[in-house]
Give the backbone structure.
Amino acid sequence: MEPAWLEHLALELPDAVVVAGSDGRLVWGNPAAERIFGLSNADIVGSDALQFLHPEDLELAVASLASVLDKNVGSPIELRVKTPTGWKLVELIGANLVGKPPIDGLVWCFRDLTERRRWEVATNDIERFRSLVHNSASILLLLDRSGTVQSVSAAITRMLGHDQALVEGHPLEDLVVQADRPALEAALSSAIDGELAEEGPTIVEVDLRRRDGGVPVPCELSIVNLLDDPTVNGLVVSAHNITQLRSTRDALERLATRDPLTGLPNRKLILDRIEQMQKRGRRSGHDGAVLFIDLDQFKDVNDSLGHRVGDDVLRQTAIRFQGALRETDSIGRLGGDEFVVLVEGSGVHDAEAAAQRLLESLAAPFAVHSAARPQLTIAASIGIVSGAYASAEDLLMDADVALYEAKAAGRNRAVRFEPQMRGEFRTRIDLERDLRLALEGGEFFVVYQPVIQLSAGTVQSMEALLRWRRPSGLVVAPDAFIPALEDSGLIVDVGAFVLREACRQTRHWNDAGFPTAVSVNVSPRQFETGTLVDEIQSALEESGLDPTSLILEMTETTLMRDSRESALRLMALKDLGIRLAIDDFGTGYSSLAYLQQFPVDIIKIDRTFVMGTATDQASTALVHALIELGNALGLKTVAEGIETIDQLMQLKHEGCDAGQGFYFSRPLEEADAQRFLAAAVDGVTTGPVPVTL
Ligand code: C2E
Ligand code: MG
Ligand code: MG
């Protein structure tokens, strides 16, 4: 072969070839060497070959050199060589031509491995990827355009028991339970249509069948369309087991739609159901009815027996209500002591019957864990609404209005909504708001009406009566706002105010030389909260009033609400040394039994009977009987509402101890009341205050 041809070969060879002298210095390099090392031949010639090597590879290079020198030809080694653009990986093989002219040196051939190695790394990645796929907890599938499984990962066997080979070649649909097939189909075609491709994978939840026919496994499939990718050419599906996720999600869903205390649907769900019922009503023409239920005086249960007992009562109530409903009705708890019942597609008559059953379900007393009161009776008020509404909220608003009417009408009853109720309700809401402001703004004050000892003509006590001076200056009497104070619970704070005021004022009068007692009215709600004894005690301590100078007035209804508990409360009050009066006596139960059971000191005969005394026989007879009853039981009797001298004379004649009424005086503001006391005392410095009868 011609030398020129050989030289040409050396110059065109893609592998680098360099020749080193026996001293290790380079004497020649071919153009490929220049290219690979990024050096010109001039730079190569004369340089030390070892200087190009990576320090860590020097040892290997020296060993290889030794072997080349020894055996003339070495085995290929991989080395890193320095180039102006960074390290390059090369394969090196040497030949020993030392002493063999014309070369007389070592010939080294290099091949640049950098590119190849990169490719090899990629191949390793694929291996790693295979292993990942094989061991993945999710099932990975490759489908063709028709949805047939081309290949599937081993997880299919672990998760569902299917043999990989038996799944391949079959439609993915075969793995999915019947009910979820349409969803899968829709998801596959949406993935294929590709519109969503840019938004990420198509997600669908399906239940996958197990080979053994066991409970299907809920899975989330994510489908990626790689039909256009030549390396994949299919749909890549990963199926992820979401059993755990689903149960967590279900729990969350329950949390979001269930009332945790009773397990009943919560406000959100019940509003939803009302809307659905309304929709059905629009289609069928049969609007269902909604019952809005609120337990009566439930706040008092919470206040006096604690929240645990309150919660227990709510749970028991939920169970009783559920038992009272038909299969088609549904019930939810709005919060607090408010429940809602949906009576499906029926007339108002059915709704009223359902309301009646609910009320009856509460008739038997509740057993509760309370040492103070092991049994408890709870009633409820119900507002009924039916008809078409724009929204569930609107419907509930009217139901609330009807509920309010039920409360106002005396509780423990159901009332059907009528449109004219709306206006009345607004005023009630306004009133409650105004009362709250009145309490904060100090608009309440107390007036005093003298109670006269009839035989001596002295002032024996003053009855403290609440008044409200509105910002307009108008003074409002309690009958107009006491019910609203009761309903809103404000009575507790307002009542405490009256107590403090009355004790303070009376102590002041006593100090000024007018030895009068004071009587204060206590409302049912106030009596039932556990704080009354404390309030009285602190009012007495604050004012320094002698406890025997304080009389509490309560109606029979207040005491009869829960007689056992009331008796205990009254004992606690009596222990403070104060006296108790039954107000409006004769209008309630007038039961002898309770007069004996309760530690009562005074009965106040209701004005309605006093009014007729001296003019109508029946009233006179009744007043006579009441006074006799009082005397027999050793109680003092006070006649309310004496307006005429005839009434007064008659009552004196019957042996009534004391009297109160416009005949003596209207209720008076502080200064006038003091003037009344002063006028009555008229020279007498000690003892009861005599007045002219
Ligand atoms: P009550 O305890 O029976 O008070 C007597 C009511 O009869 C008072 O009405 C008084 O002004 C009125 N009255 C007195 N003498 C006569 C009379 O000769 N003829 C007529 N027609 N009426 C007479 P008032 O002040 O409007 O109080 C009404 C009711 O409001 C009271 O009835 C009492 O139940 C309640 N109340 C008043 N103040 C308070 C209070 O501070 N707390 C509570 N819880 N209730 C109160
Ligand atoms: Mg009274
Ligand atoms: Mg009265």
